Each structure stands twice: as structure tokens, then as C-alpha cells.
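Sample intake sheet
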Amino acid sequence: MKKSILLLFVLFFVLPTNIKAQTIQHAGWYLAPVVTTTNPVYSLGFNVVRNMFQEEDILGSLEDYMSPYFPRFRTMYRIGQKIKTPDGNAEIKWWDWKLQNFSLGYCVGYFPYNFPVGFIAEFDYERQNWNAKLPGKDDYVNYSKQMITPVVCARIILHKPTASLFLEPGIKFNKTLSAKGDYDTKDYVNDGITGIFGLGICNKSRHIEYLIRYERDFFDFFNQDFTAPDGTKTYKDFETSMGAISITMRYHINFVWQ
């Protein structure tokens, strides 16, 4: 947890965006840190703090020198979670209250004003931590997975007079750094692709957006070919279904590269 707090500090304070306010009015670039949690209490708290810094009396003196630096906060709700084994389905519990499931990263995007298609590229560090009790077992096992997760989404804008609807289809690649659970090795889990589809609305200036996004893993969590130290294939014929819905309110200032 100490390493995560240090990383959060670096994202928010060591890497500010020093862009003059005069250059941002008509551009379409967007850059900001991203924080995702699976507990709305944390995301709500982060948003309250952020909104305090968005007040004009706090930021007014800075606007002549640099672009305000506002991170994105995303709340994710796990849905459709299932582990199917030859002996039946497992029971799954997520650890939401201990901030065990989160991601930290950076997002860069281009949302052109006179063209309906843009893009978003995101690079995150993500941690998953959940409990599962397999059929025939008496106790839950904690499964922890740390990953690097680059994301690429298209932005398709449907213009309206005062606001714009937009679609965000994309993909996320999950590259495992470490994993713990039944075995203390990342070999028992899979890397893979997650499909993304987002639907949102933004105001005409595109400074405020509301986005709901659905994600679905296109791979099994467990590696069916993994061979345990005793020579058995522990996860043979295991099938997993992992999905999530996330909700984001974005506030951003557009800018151009200097």
C-alpha cells in the first residue's frame, strides 16, 4: 500500500501539466491522471477534494500561468463474475472496503471539435484482489493479481446543439506482473484482452463529461495448462467470466503541445 500511495503522489504532484491557459481554448488534446476504485466511497471522496481545487477562488491565480491539473476518478462495479469448474461454480467475494482493487495511470486523448472521431490512450497499473471458494473446499482463497494494462479507445461523437453523445469502443491488454493465490507464481493465471464499450454525454465545450463503460474479459483468469508441483493440471476445464461496469465524471481542460 505504501508503494501505491507513493505512485499516486508522483502522478498528481511530480508530473504537473505546465501549459499556458491562452493556448488551450480551441485545441482538442486532453491529458490527466486516472484513478479507478471498486468502492464508490473512495471515488466520491476523491471527487470532493478535486472539486474543492476547481473552485475559482482557489485556482484563479494559477490560470494565467498553467492549465489546471485535474485527474479523472472512475468507480467500477464488478458484474457477471463466474468461475465454472468440473465440480460446479465457485463462490466469489470482492474486497471493496480495504482499497484492494484499484488502478492508477495516465490518459491522453484527442477530441477534435470539427471532426466526429477521436481517440483515448491510457496506461495503468492495476491491482485485483478477491476471494473465491471452489466446490468441495471449506475455505476461501485470496487471489491477488498485479498488472500493467494499456488501453486504446476510439471516440465517436454524435453532435447535438448543446451537448454531444459519444461512443467509446476499445480494448485493454492485461499483462500480469505478479499473482498470488493457490500458488505464489503468475504462471497459473492468463494474460489477455478485455473488450470495452462506453456510452457518454458531454457539454458543448467538452469540459464536463459523464461516461458509463462496460468491460468484458475475452480470456479465462486461470491457465488451464498450468502444471502444479505435484504434476496435476489444477485448473483443467476451468472457465471464468469476468465483467464490470464503470462510471466516470470527467472534468478536463483541453490544451496543445508546447
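Comment: The chain is about 10% helix and 50% strand. Residues 42 and 140 are 26 Å apart (CA to CA).
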